Amino acid sequence: MPSHSHSSNTSHTSPVRTTQDEHSPVESGRGEHSPPGGGWFGRTFPHARADFSASIVVFLVAVPLSLGIAVASGAPILAGLVAAVVGAVVAGLLGGSKLQVSGPAAGLTVIVAELVNTYGWQVTTLITAGAGVLQIVFGLTKLSRFAQAIPPAVVHGMLAGIGATIALGQLNVVLGGEAQTGGVASITALPGAIANLSLPALLLGGLVIAIMLGWSRLPSKVTVVPAALIAIVAATVVSLGFTDVARVELGGSLLDALSLPSLPESNWGGVLFGMLTVALIASVESLLSAVAIERMKPGTRTDTDRELLGQGAANTVSGMIGGLPITGVIVRSAANVKAGAETRASTVLHGVWIALFAIVLIGVIELIPMAALAGLLVMMGIGLIKPVDIRTARAHGELAIYAVTLAGVVFLNLLEGVVAGLVLAGLMLLWRAVRSRPHLEQAADGSCELVIEGSLSFLAVPRLSRELNAVPRGTDVTVRLVTDYLDHAAYDHLLAWKARHEGTGGTVVVIEPDEARRSAATAPGARFLTWGEWQSRNAEQTASEPLMAGVAAYHENTCDAIRPTMSELANGQAPSAMMISCADSRVLPHVITHSGPGDVFTVQNVGNLACGPGTAAAVEFATSALNVPLVAVCGHSGCGAMKGLRSGAAGTEGALGTWLLEARPVLRAFETGHPVAEAAAQDGFEETDQLAMVNVALQMEMLRAQDSGAEVMGMFYDIRTARVLVLDEEAQRFVDVRPDDEAVGSGLDKIAAGHGHGITAAARRILKV
User: Fold this and answer.
1) Of 23, 55, 7, 1, which is closest to residue 749 (Cα–Cα)?
2) How many angstroms separate the CA atoms of 364 and 227, rounded?
3) Domain ranges in the chain?
4) Which residues contact 104 (CB under 8 A, 6 or more apart)?
5) For domain 10-15+575-767, is the CATH number 3.40.50.150?
6) In this structure, are residues 743 and 735 in contact, taking their beta carbons and an 8 Å threshold?
7) d(CA 356, CA 311)
8) For residue range 79-138, what is the model confidence (pLDDT) as tens digits?
9) How is residue 369 annotated by DSSP?
10) Per CATH, is 436-511 categorized as 3.10.129.10?
11) Residue 673: which region, alpha, beta or left (left: phi > 0; alpha: psi -120 to 50)?
12) What's the predicted TM-score (pTM) here?
């Protein structure tokens, strides 16, 4: 074992970044459509294929939506496409959300229609530009942070409501009717659409729905192409056999729609109020969409202040050239995420496609049947209604919030639905804040335990008094306070009852769980530990007592806190990485990666070997079934398996000797001078640790030979210093990971470039850098 000589070797230390560049693999990860990492193009544009295919899907979604919103707003029809292009390019480049797609949105149609009717189209574009300036002010003054407190049930309900509204509205088109923008209008129009059913429209829309439903059941080599793209192309080809099919109609070139705004002749007060109204609604809708996208794509982060700046710039440009107001659009953004987009290039590209086709290839766009696009949107809408969100809301007691938000979005509009959900969430929060849950339990020996949960305020005194009066006179009572708030009135009432009960000959012990933790934390020499140490247990204890004591402590101190997280994970897992580590009790994968439940798929065996059917099955399951993008092998200092390997234990009698036979190639590589061992020796590591490092390198080679498609990285846990080292395959040396260094990420980037197997997004996630 080295002392500290290896950490002082600064020439081999790889600083690691603490912030993430939006175009780096740190943030974007490995998309399901991403191309292989080999070759110059793959290294330079690692997400090109994913972003390209996603941009096509979003383009196909955005065109009909933009046209329909323009019609519903009473604006020139091409103004919708102008706004779509500007929103994609300007907001896409400048905004704070890399996956959000901006453009004209249904949430503003009523307001815009009223503005057009009152002031005319040219003044409305001035209002749009002015609203953009106000949004820039909002961003500069950092008002966006208020969107961070939106409850998940409201966000999920909003998504479900939007999905239901889109699906209902586009179902009319699939049946041969007209698209509707509101839930009530869509439901009202359905009987008429059914009565006047168009078989060609039903055939084309149904074909798209059928392809998208069945696409995931095809072989993976086929499904690498987005289902939506295949469905639209297939429906377009089939539609050529029909003459009476409604298709996309543009009515001119995109350039024909460009125009400058006009000043109003009067009523500047109304114009300014219109600017403020559009700015507020567009900002809230954009931030709601950004928050929703964060929840749809774990790992993405939105700079909400920058997002407002980007939205403001886009609205200013759109208004100045004759476009509709712009917001972040959840339907397009959701389509972008679902299609596999990884960077903002997808958003910008879809705007380029809209501009290109609207200027040059109008005829191609006009071949697409509206019923086919409607079928696509029906599937997109249904996809936003997730059963897991409903189960999660129910598990947290927030199903009513979810349902009210959903119903409000469908039957009112987006903002009113969200406001209704927020109001109900606030009322429920107030109710929980003043509600306590005391319950009395009597043991067989006659003693009682009164557990009081929730908030204990003066409003809870009547209920508390009822439970206290139920305690038999003269009994021994334990009062366990599991409360987050205790006010003076309730405290006085509890103390008064305690005095009265003790006067009857009984005893009262009041337990506050935090008291023990506070005293431990302030005790001399106290250390921060997130676990209980069993090493100092009484030798007279039975073998199971320490374990069961730990379980009891978990139930008392941790179970309630972790329950919401586990409830969300109850229906499945989506880990970011897999780790193969040693079974040594000192190696704790979740501790050294600072990860939580559902983050890392772990396998621990003697010697962290990647061989054997059990480990191979785990790797196959993780990479194939769970789509884990990274497999990490972690060795450690003082490894008993490596000591046994050096002492000739491989091949001896017993299961351990048979298992170590698999590691003989590691010993041979070490004895013949493996470069990793030489570097470890230079850094001051003893021979057993040098062998453990060589073992990690060879297990990585074995994993790559399995061709799972996942990235592979090597780690080493130095138990004495409690630090994690990472294998730099170019230098063939384990290097220190220091997330506080200023040379942001250069070490990992060097590792990624050196061997052709990059430590990219998943590796950074597991290392928390």
Assistant:
1) 23
2) 20
3) 10-15+575-767, 42-425, 436-511
4) 65, 66, 69, 70, 73, 79, 80, 83, 84, 87, 323, 324, 325, 326, 327, 329
5) no
6) no
7) 23
8) 888 999 999 999 999 998 888 899 998 767 767 877 888 899 999 999 999 999 999 999
9) B
10) no
11) left
12) 0.52
